Amino acid sequence: MKSVYTILLLVMSNIFMTFAWYGHLKFKEFKWFGALPLVTVVLISWGMALFEYFFQVPANRIGFKENGGPFTLVELKVIQEVTTLVIFMLFTLLFFKNETFRINHFIGFIFLILAVYFIFKK
């Protein structure tokens, strides 16, 4: 059950992270947001990223093997990176219609799946 909680928390964390890092690129379409100075945009993004930590830190604490969780540190990092890329691709395809998913992206995802396989192989 700790593995499920860990992965769900990492998904939530990555949703906030993706919006904090890349969401502001889409917000420029809103008239009020386009006029904000860069420092304000950074602070808004930082505020969103704060919520990332509310999910990321518990995920790592719950999931880490030395805290009674099911994952090693390397496994946690690989789960986080794969989750980040999946969330990022979904975000990109949903919110940035000018981006396309090409064959080289698909091939890259196959290699990521292989990486996960080899990282978790005992």
In short:
The chain is an all-alpha fold and 122 residues long.
Describe this structure in words.
The chain has 122 residues and is mainly α. The protein has one domain. The protein has helices at residues 2-27, 31-34, 38-63, 73-95, 103-120. The protein starts with a helix and ends with a helix.
Compute the CA-based radius of gyration: 17 Å
Number of helices: 5
Secondary-structure-derived class: mainly alpha
User: What's the SSE pattern?
Assistant: HHHHH
Helix content: over 70%
**How large is the share of residues in beta strands?**
under 5%
Summarize the biggest pleated sheet: none
Low-confidence stretches: none
The CA-CA distance between the termini, in Å, is 20 Å
- Mean pLDDT across all residues, rounded? 89
Number of strands: 0
Oligomer: single chain
Count of discrete domains? 1
Shape label: flat
Keywords: Membrane, Transmembrane, Transmembrane helix
InterPro entries: DUF486
Transmembrane segments: 6-25, 32-55, 78-96, 103-120
Protein name: DMT family protein
